[in-house]
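Appendix B, record 7
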Amino acid sequence: MKLFLFKSALALMNALPLSFVHWLGSLIGRIAWLANGDARRTVETNLRLCFPELDQEARTELAKKSLAEAGKTILEGGKMWRGDPDKLLTLMTSSDGESLIDEARRQDRGVILAIPHCGCWETVSFYIAKHYPMTGMFKVRNRPGFDELVRDARERVGAKLVPTNASGIRAMGKALKKHELVVLMPDQTPTGQGEFADFFGHPAYTMTLLPRLAKSTNAVVLFAFARRLPGGKGYQLVVRQAEQDIAALETRPALEAVNCSLADLIREAPEQYWWLYKRFKKQPDGYPPVYDLD
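C-alpha cells (predicted):
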C-alpha cells in the first residue's frame, strides 16, 4: 500500500507543471518554518555553523529560502523518476562549465563528477547519463519495490549503477580507466572508510573513496549541481573545476581540497543546498554534539 501511494504521488507531481510543483514545494517549506520542528532547527544550526559572517536577520532569511527549496526537492522527484526522458532533458535549459568534462576526456582522463545535495541533483545524473558513459553507485535498501523503482528511474537513460561494495568500487575504477564518468555524492557521511576534514570551518567526516579513486586512475575531479531557475523555468547545469588536481594529492590534502571546492560550489546557490542533512552529526572524540536533539 505504501509503495502504491508513493507511486501515485510521483505520478501526480509528474503530471503537474513544474512551476506549480515548485510553488507547492515552497508552501511545504513555509509550513515547516512555522511548525518550528526539527527540520527548522537543523537548518538553523547548519547555517549558524557555516555562515558565521551573516547576521541573524540574513541567516533567518536564508533558512526560510532553504526550507522552500527543500520542499521543491521533495516534490520534483515525480518528474525526475517518472517523467518522459525527452521532456526532462528540455528542462536543462543551459549549462555553465560543461566543456570542462569534454576537455578532461580529450586529455584521455576519466572524470569523477562530485555532485553535492544542492539544487536538483537527480537532474544532473539524468543529464550526464544521457550525454556521456556514466557509472554511479546504488545502495540497496532491501525494499524490493522501492529499490526497483529507483533503479529503473536512474537507469532509463543509460546510467550504469553498481553496488556500494568492493565490486562496485572496482567497476568505477575500470570505468575511469576507460575515460568514462563516475558520479559520487561526496557530502554524505560515509558508512565505510572516511576521515575528518574541514567543511565550512568545522570537522566533517568525509569519504576517502573519491580522492583514492582519483589518485589510482588519474581521473579529473569536477563539481556540479543543477541550479533551479526562477518561475519553474527549469535548471542550469553548473560544472566547476576543483581548486587543485585531486589526483595529484595525498589523501589528507585531497580531502581538504574536495571539501573546499564543495563549499565554493554551494556558496553559488546556498539557499538550494540540502541544509536538512545533519552533516556534522559524527564528530571527533571529545567534541560536543552539534545537534541538540541527538
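Remarks on this record: The chain has a mean pLDDT of 93. Strands lie at 92-96, 111-114, 134-138, 160-163, 181-184, 194-199, 202-207, 220-228, 235-241.
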